[in-house]
Amino acid sequence: MAKSAILKSSIAKKVAMALSGLFLISFLSLHFFINFVSVFSENSFNAMSHFMGYNPLIQFVMQPVLVAGVVFHFVMGFVLELKNRNARPVAYVKFDGAANSSWASRNMIISGLVVLAFLGLHMYDFWFHEMVYKYVESNVIDETRYYDELVAKFESPVRTGLYCVAFVLLALHLWHGFTSSLQSVGFDNKIGKSLHKICYAFAIIVPFGFIFIALFHHFNN
Amino acid sequence: MSAAKNINISLQIWRQKNSKEKGKMETYKLNDVSTASSFLEMLDQLNEQLVNERKEPIAFDHDCREGICGMCSLYINGRAHGPDTGITTCQLHMRMFNDGDTIVIEPWRSAAFPVIKDLIVDRTSFDRIQQAGGFVSVNTSGNTIDANATPVPKDDADKAFEAAACIGCGACVATCKNGSAMLFVGAKVSQYALLPQGRVEATARVLNMVRQMDEEGFGNCTNTGACEIECPKGISLENIARMNREYLSASLK
């Protein structure tokens, strides 16, 4: 069987979706760690942010890889959703999905779209601002600006609220997506079941941790 | 168990003359249905009523009526094989329903299972997947080695047997929000992959069966787990994970 045919197969797409998801989870973990530092150490947060913002390996290798990972995950998600919709051209009059599966597992496209919309806002808030600061306005390097910029973003109750809503949807996305990605790459239930508990804990701790960070800066500054 | 009683029900059933014409839901009233009767006996009773009224009876699949053959399908009140788990439709009884209930009955919905008539769908796509690799090639010219002469670890034998319990009814496809057939194919791949007799053709088998599955137009599995819940034989999602592993390792060879 030709390798090109294998790459187009449903299982290859499923595995690619899972691997890109796992990659994004690893990035999310790092992002969460750095943001969490902002709660108890302004200086450490500034140092870490500056390193991430000016290290050439991160800026010119890891950042494009991350953007590619995000784009791939979303595009593949839409491709699979379209294929799945075509697999059932006539819908059921009555479909009781709640009888046998969780809302999170059946609505990954909805939670994914909310997270995508949030990413648009997030990119506008931080990434776009950072690009203009560094490359358009060519400002001088200021290693202490990051904490103040972060706090300023969470002054607005509307923006803080939007962040919180998006993170609840991210929690739902991760609740199914993390365990699902392990199943897709072929983890057997024997190993998988013990890993599932870690996945579920991650799906709660990280998004709600982000919510805590947003609320912390909103109410403390 | 409470004593049997008679109930009156309303039925909304998909009627479709043939594969070419459009179908629609039609409503029927059926009185004096014994709660001790099976769901298929209730449909028999309805068909008798329709014949007496000189109307076309409802076409539905059935054969063994004891949960083995996998012929009876039916999407009942939004669930494959109706409001219970671990059963086929022929094992569903009217005691699961109450007097005055409206029961919605639809055929399996999948691009790969086109409706032939009313509630009967064409499931030969499953046959074609089986033909693509769901077998072991055995020399039957008198030199066949007794299967029991080849030692098989008990755990593997048990898992292979559990996978082989799949009756190919299609409930996994019907209940999956994506119309995916991966539980069926995963079971068929696992059944052989776990046994030494099946390892010989394991690489070609998984590649060919997955290729055929994709060609038939089934959807993609997103691991909702609905198939495992509704499978009348309790086929585990482990089989999908095993198929994924088999496929990945076969792809690299």
Give structural notes:
Chain B: Its cofactor is [2Fe-2S] cluster. Chain B: This is Succinate dehydrogenase/fumarate reductase iron-sulfur subunit. Chain B: Residues 157-187 form the 4Fe-4S ferredoxin-type domain. Chain B: InterPro entries: 2Fe2S_fd_BS (IPR006058), 4Fe4S_Fe-S-bd (IPR017896), SDH/FRD_Iron-Sulfur (IPR050573), Succ_DH/fum_Rdtase_Fe-S (IPR004489), Succ_DH/fum_Rdtase_N (IPR025192). The complex is a heterodimer of chains A (221) and B (253). Chain A is built from 9 helices and no strands. Chain A is mostly helical and 221 residues long. Chain A starts with a helix and ends with a helix. The model of chain A has no long low-confidence stretch (mean pLDDT 92). Chain A has one domain: 3 helical TM bundles of succinate and fumarate reductases (Up-down Bundle), CATH 1.20.1300.10. Chain A is globular and about 55 Å long. Chain A has helices at residues 3-7, 10-40, 42-54, 56-86, 103-106, 108-136, 146-153, 157-184, 189-220. Chain B has 2 domains: 6-116, Beta-grasp domain (Ubiquitin-like (UB roll), Roll), CATH 3.10.20; 124-251, Orthogonal Bundle (Fumarate Reductase Iron-sulfur Protein, Chain B, domain 2), CATH 1.10.1060.10. In chain B, the strands form 2 sheets. A 5-stranded mixed beta sheet of chain B has the order 2-1-5-3-4. In chain B, strands 6-7 form a two-stranded antiparallel ribbon. In chain B, a hairpin with a 2-residue loop joins β6 (115-117) and β7. In chain B, α5 (182-193) packs across α9. The radius of gyration of chain B is 20 Å and the shape is elongated. Chain B starts with 5 loop residues before the first strand and ends with a helix.
